[in-house]
Amino acid sequence: MLVAQIQQANLKLMTLKCSNITDIGVNLTNARFHKDLHATLLRSLDAGVYRHIITGTCVQTSQQALALALDPSLPCERFATAGFHPHNASDNNPESWQHLVQLWQHPKVLAIGETGLDFNRNFSTPTQQLDSFEQHLQVAKDIQLPLFLHERDAAGEFLELLTQYRSGFGKAVLHCFTGTETFLKQLLNLDIHIGITGWICDERRGEHLRKAVRMIPHQRLMLETDAPYLLPRDMRPKPKSSRNEPAYLTHILERVAHLRGQTTDELAQQTEVTVKDFFSLD
Questions:
Q1: What's the CATH code of the domain at 181?
Q2: 0.85 cut: is pTM over it?
Q3: Sheet with 49-54, edge to edge strand ranges
């Protein structure tokens, strides 16, 4: 009962005049949503987050993401991505790759990825990650879908591959951007879009990001929760659960708008135009 009251209090605090925003990166296939996914999406809709792009990180989660996108019993608009997260690069083989090729043909699958490099924990070796990332970049030349990218502790190698293949693919977004101003400028010079999460709400780790977010042109900026991860640290009252959820995207919107000197309505409208253009949505 207390958890529900806290959730409702947060939603009231985050009510916006413009109830029309998209969470471009949410992990609804995660087990932490299995028991109350329908209720989670209803809270999201009540908060003004009406569209979700569900992240695929391997064959299984990509298939699950598409299944959720197609489920008629669930509220909100739902779409999916399909790819191998760098953590799962070791699972990338000819047989599994063909499953992704099939998924990319579905109209509900909007992007190739999540793909990229993550040298922070190396669940897959750097070599496996580089090979898998390059394979995604190569296929993006032939399949007219944008790329949904990930980078952590691998900026040099990441930029090297992006630069090498940049002329061959169209749109790309680096989701959950947490890098430096220098890295941001390099990405913008490559015409890469930027996804901002609740990381920006963390005064311990996000201070540099609060300055960098002002540099992002509005036509390159999109918002996401990366739920159930990255619960915004500065939410008040603080949710009882540590689980992030898509309804909290409005809190991220408010924080980013404040840092950029914009109203929430203005930023919401700008990001929606960018989302629809980037993912070719009506």
A1: 3.20.20.140
A2: yes
A3: 21-26, 49-54, 77-82, 109-118, 147-152, 172-174, 193-196, 221-223
